Amino acid sequence: MTLSRPGMERGGLEMARADRADIIIVGGGPAGTTLATLLKKYAPQRDVVVIEKCSGPRHHVGESLQPGINPVLKEMGVYDDVVRAGFPRKIGAVFVWGKNRKPWQNIFKDANKKALADSEAERAAVVNASFQVRRSRYDEILLRHAEKCGVRVERGAQALTILEEGRRIAGISLRGADGRIREIRSEFVADCSGQNGFLSKYRDIRKHHPGLKNVAGFAYFKKAQWKFRYTGYKYETKIFICSTAHGWFWYIPIDQDLISIGFVTNAEHARKGGAGIRELYFRELRKCKEIWPLLKNAEQVRDFDGTGQDFFIQNDWSYFSVAASGPGWLAAGDAAVFVDPILSSGALLAHLGAQRAAYTLLTHWTEPTESGRALLWRDYNEFNREFSARFFAMAVFWYGNDRNTAKWWRKAKDIQRAHLPVSLSDRTAFITISSGLSQYYDRLHHEDLLKEEYTLLSDQDFYRDVLKGDVEANPGRGIPGDRLVPRFLFPIQVEPALMPFYGKGVMHTARRIRFLKHPATDALEDVFNPRRIVSPHHLEFISGIDGVRTFSEIRQRAASRGVPEHWLRDRSLAFLKELALQGVLKLRAKTRRTSRR
Ligand SMILES: Cc1cc2nc3c(=O)[nH]c(=O)nc-3n(C[C@H](O)[C@H](O)[C@H](O)COP(=O)(O)OP(=O)(O)OC[C@H]3O[C@@H](n4cnc5c(N)ncnc54)[C@H](O)[C@@H]3O)c2cc1C
């Protein structure tokens, strides 16, 4: 075992004997607590340790949450505690942007109606609204809950360095609350340390997005006014996003009489101005016609959350990790990826990324084969890249274009393409992505797929059995890598993949299909698309529909192949429509006959 250098000070401090754990999680924010709680829930025998450097509740930015988080809170068993804390309910967002100062809004339940029309009522209710939170309280609720679930939490302890065995991370050294430096060895180290990125300095994984280098200044106000058009009611709040000439403000009610107001601007602009972000903040605030009048009688909070500060500055440089896991380690939340806060996606990515990390690790612990485990972690890296890519694409488009609202909505539809039902409007697609609900389509679809029986075939078996006709028809051509151009359908790439079985804490093996034909599906921003994960059964079905021209022909063909009814009734049909939309299948629209009498 070797001790790595950066940041290590053994000094005169006494080294205590090493402790052991199954996993050490560095950071007790939303990512760390989600990972810890879910691991403990599904594998109570595992020793899960969270190291949190703050000894008590701590101030943090990131107050406006998305409803997509709620089901994760439910799975963790902490949703009711969050409700009981009485945070303002958040029902959507209001934007005033650019020259057109007419406010427009996105209300979560508008997306929800369609998104979850066929799911149980309880789940729908849970994603109608989210919360706007004082993060010191919210994060404390999560951390206490993790403790209650049996997670070993060390507060006031700071992770200092990693321990390595060859290339594998095998533990950490830390400075405990008592000031002593000691080691904990573990099978895994999870970096959930937020923007600090405890592990990124050892693994050189972080890459900043060149186009999204912003800085934020923010403060808290009492006696600020509420205006229904911008903030909603006190019991049904909205986040208000308002542009100015040099950036944009957030206006977030985080309590009945407490508003968080932040200003985001280009880091270069803030630096060149020479005035400093604080001065720039107040200068822009006074010029903001929508927000300034609301602050007529407002008082800036002097010592917020016991920090002794009345103003906060936060680097807001978006970044991603070239890998979110490696031998003996994984990263989740801000430690893995951070996307500009324009869509308030940070906490969502933290909760959902950590949920995925938990599912991956739980399956790793039961997976007997090396190749199966490698597939799990490759898939975890993919998930991180693809899930955050949606938000990167939205932010890049917003900052880089003319900020035309309708185009932004269109972009939301484009980047989710096959992911959402074809009939969804651009606007609903936007609401869906900005409320963190798009993955619920994945979820519904996954649940359908999981009713099917899965066997993980080897690649060769897969091609031979499932794509038999094609391979035989092109004997000389072979299969270049895992890319293949079937004679009968369209260019696809087939690869092994995994899908989570929500509520069970396991990942199931599946096949992922990438359609290569449409440019949108091939772009860098191509998103995690559940409809491209199909069971061999489904693949066989679509492979047999070459030449058919109408849905009724598809139905007949499916019936002759014994395809289950539910495939055709719901999602399968939507999937086929999707293919038609992408030009993959040619379907003749059925003319509707209406009686004139
Ligand atoms: C300007 C700005 C505005 C934002 N607005 C929003 C918003 O409105 N909505 C939203 O959802 N998100 C927002 N975010 C993003 C949000 O703040 C983060 O995405 C979210 O907090 C990530 O959670 P996390 O658990 O990954 O990290 P964190 O919440 O940062 O938690 C990391 C924890 O690790 C601990 N830690 C760090 N280093 C060590 C160490 N060496 N040893 C021990 N402990 C350590 C820290 O003390 C901390 O408690 C915003 C971000 C910025 C920059």
At a glance:
By secondary structure, the protein is an alpha+beta fold. The strands form three sheets. Strands 4, 5, 6, 11, 12, 13, 14, 15, 16 and 17 form a ten-stranded mixed sheet that branches. Strands 1, 2, 3, 7, 8, 9, 10, 18 and 19 form a nine-stranded mixed sheet that branches. It has a four-stranded antiparallel sheet with strand order 20-21-22-23. The radius of gyration is 25 Å and the shape is globular.
Alpha-carbon Rg, integer: 25 Å
CATH architecture of the largest domain: 3-Layer(bba) Sandwich
Count of DSSP E strands? Answer: 23
- From the structure provided, what is the oligomeric state, counting identical versus distinct chains? single chain
Q: Characterize the biggest β-sheet.
A: 10 strands, mixed
Percentage of residues in helical conformation: 25-40%
Shape: globular
CATH topology group of the largest domain:
FAD/NAD(P)-binding domain
Structural category:
alpha+beta
Mean pLDDT: 77
User: Total helix count?
Assistant: 22
User: Unreliable runs, pLDDT <50, ≥5 residues?
Assistant: 1-17, 445-491, 515-540, 566-597
List keywords for this structure.
FAD/NAD(P)-binding domain, D-Amino Acid Oxidase, Chain A, domain 2, ten-stranded mixed β-sheet, 22 helices, 23 strands
